[in-house]
Amino acid sequence: MKRMAVAAVAVLAGALATTVSPAAVAAEGPSADLLAAMQRDLGLDAQQAAERLRQESAAAVLQRVAEGFAGESYGGAWFDAATGKLVVGVTDAAKTDRLRKLGAEPRTVAHKASDLDAAKAKLDAAQAPAEVTGWFVDTKANAVTITVKRGQTQAAQTLVEKAGAVAKVVETDEAPRLFKDTRGGDAYYINNAGRCSVGFAVAGGFVSAGHCGSPGDTVTGVDKTAMGEFEKSSFPGNDYSFVKTNSSWTSTAKVNHYGGADVIVSGHTESAVGASICRSGSTTGWHCGEVQAKSQTVNYQEGSVSGLTRTNVCAEPGDSGGSWVSGTQAQGVTSGGSGDCTSGGTTYYQPVNEILETYGLTLTTG
Length: 366
Known about the structure:
Blueprint: H1 2-20, H2 22-28, H3 32-42, H4 46-70, E1 74-80, E2 85-90, H5 96-102, E3 105-108, H6 113-124, E4 132-138, E5 143-149, H7 157-163, E6 167-172, E7 177-178, E8 187-190, E9 194-197, E10 200-202, E11 205-208, E12 218-220, E13 226-234, E14 240-245, E15 254-255, E16 263-264, E17 276-281, E18 285-300, E19 303-311, E20 323-326, E21 329-340, E22 344-351, H8 352-359
Parallel strand pairs: 2-3, 5-6
Antiparallel strand pairs: 1-2, 4-5, 4-18, 7-21, 8-9, 8-12, 10-11, 11-14, 12-13, 13-14, 15-16, 17-18, 17-20, 18-19, 19-22, 20-21, 21-22
């Protein structure tokens, strides 16, 4: 058993060496425009932004290995921007030394990640009142957080009872809505009427938000020429879709940076909670922030959507379906949120990996 642990550490060290070296970061090519956006929205200079991307890349590799070492005691993980380290929660304090040797910052927690996921699954199966705006596994708090409109905490009581001791209620002034009325560049038109933004190009078409259209709906491109039609779509429950394009359109790995050079997507490795992330949308352009939580359920007026990722990035109506990237790694497509890009807000995205897996699609990369 000891030899296996040593061997695993050696494998991890090799993976980290190739993943997080300055040369590797340079090879992925975070553009000056991307670094500038991180500087604007995260308060970093270009050097700090590049270093953060390097640290987050290391954390993404370490997260997978640390979860394996923690086993049943795994309590979740997140990237701590202040220390540049991956924090790993465990219910078994005896495993903290091993995690620390791997390079993680261990933290003893009360609840296993599997228990939190199970509690959230109970909420997903429940009928939520309109006063409840959503719920998610709050990795840092080691709890399931239920968000409710201010002054309406009693409305969440039934959900708290279903989730049990792992649940906490947080009041909010947010009122999540769908960003369906998209406008602006890198847009596409549905049935020559509503608009949404392209998420990511895949072989044969592109992915976007599910609430943008239904199978059979026709799509025209930003130049108003025929583009294709929705072949698959899921909403509510999920919020993703696949648009099959015609032979006039060619899939590329580009994401519109709005005012800067296109970001070239190189893969789709999922980032950790706490990692920086940037969003491209046709109404508000390019904005950055951080991943706050994963697997959130959002209770929109039109129906609940589960499995979304919560961020503090702003967005506005017109940004639906747009691309989310961390460095040059594709992360997801815009679902909805609250607030705006003047006062700030919360925005949720549908993770792209679930879309690719569900529909058997291949992401276009450069």
